[in-house]
Amino acid sequence: MSRILLLAIGILAVDAFQSPTSSRGISSRQIGWSFPAVPITKTDAEWREKLSPDAYRVLRQDGTEPANASPLNDVKDDGVFVCAGCNSPLYQTSTKFESGSGWPSFYAPIDGDAVDLTVDYKLVIPRTEVRCAKCGGHLGHVFGDGPQPTGKRYCMNGVAMNFFAEGEDLELSEEVLDRTNNSDGAVKVKEPLAAVLPAIGIDVFIGGLFIDTFIKQASNGIDGLFDYLPLAFGVLYSFNAIRKIAGLLSNGD
Asked: Is 139 helix (H, G, I), strand (E, B) or coil?
């Protein structure tokens, strides 16, 4: 495998791990995991009437808003982020963090019933997609590079959500208080194995290819820093595999 091809694969695949581009995938419900049923159903015409064009494209057509486009990126006031399609509470400001991705990011939903996780194969490499558990609207994706206590980054489309400051809607505040009363904010939602296991296998396989390439190059002598790129990508993929295995094990806690 040539150096240029290795470099291209590494860059494209790393970008794929981080990309919040969305698509419809296989639901965790379809492969045997128990998640809340979707109680809200509307016709396509009803959704078009209710939502703005941008919100409709994201929530109902699995689109993605441009990075740094949402004013919700700058929200720091205490409050609740709700689904723009059904007003179901999703996240609290207390779990929001600056990820540098350009999309509002959180390390945990308000509880295990707020979101539904599905498998997204649009980029070939399976990713975990996040949908509103109440109306099924597409919200974004979750990645394993977030802060503690969960280590997750729920990368959300801002246009798919609305924000209510604390006390702005008393009924909403009471619901959130009731649902988070026994939570320490470290809510972990079980990811579908159909997303995690293939991703681990791909990391191990590609990481092995890079490391094997480096070993062969090293046996012939290292000519410069560029020769260490396969090793760097091999370590990166190996680390990703270990991180996903650790996350998978922690899901069983």
From this structure: strand
Count of Cβ atoms closer than 10 Å to residue 112 Cβ? 16
HEC assignment per residue over 218-252: HHCCCCCHHHHHHHHHHHHHHHHHHHHHHHHHHHC
Rounded to two decimals, what is the model's pTM?
0.70
Catalytic hit among 83, 132, 135, 155 = 155
155 is catalytic: yes
Model confidence band, residue 27 (pLDDT cutoffs 50, 70, 90): very low
Spatial neighbors of 239 by CB under 8 A, at least 6 apart, are none
**Amino acid letter for position 224:** G
What is the rounded distance in angstroms from the CA atom of residue 20 to the CA atom of residue 63?
10
Task: Let me know: does 141 contact 48? Beta carbons within 8 Å.
Answer: no
Length reported for the chain? 253
For the segment 129-139, what is each residue's pLDDT rounded down to a tens digit?
Answer: 999 999 999 99
Residue linked to tokens 């809607």? 169
